[in-house]
Amino acid sequence: MANTNKVITHWKGNLQFESDNPNGKTVLMDTSPEHGGHSSGLSPKAMMLSALAGCSGLDVVSVLDKMKVQVSDFRMDTYGELTDEHPKYYHSVSVEYHFYGDNLDENKIKKAVDLSVEKYCGVMEMFRKFATVKTSIHYHNK
Q: Where do transmembrane segments lie in this chain (predicted)?
């Protein structure tokens, strides 16, 4: 049980839930008005895409830092395509890595992304169990 994470998710009324994190931080979840919510928090399915991007982004930034590669900005656009039938889940996911800077070292950036995608990112590995995951890298040299 050493590698077990526990979160507590507490109903806050209507369709709103608050979930904690092992570090003590909390996140609010809700749904859209068309589904009876108030859009006062993040949707659970969108949070899955955020978790995927966050997991990979942490890897990429950490590896780039170790390689002493500088970027002025970095963003990931993550798209998830849901099935038509219930239970709706992401059957196809795309992660676009966008790097901005002067004279970007494309080889090292690609290596950092590949290490995350192929080796380090556990959330991406989980997604691969139920979805086709595509990635692409976009360089924006100033």
A: none
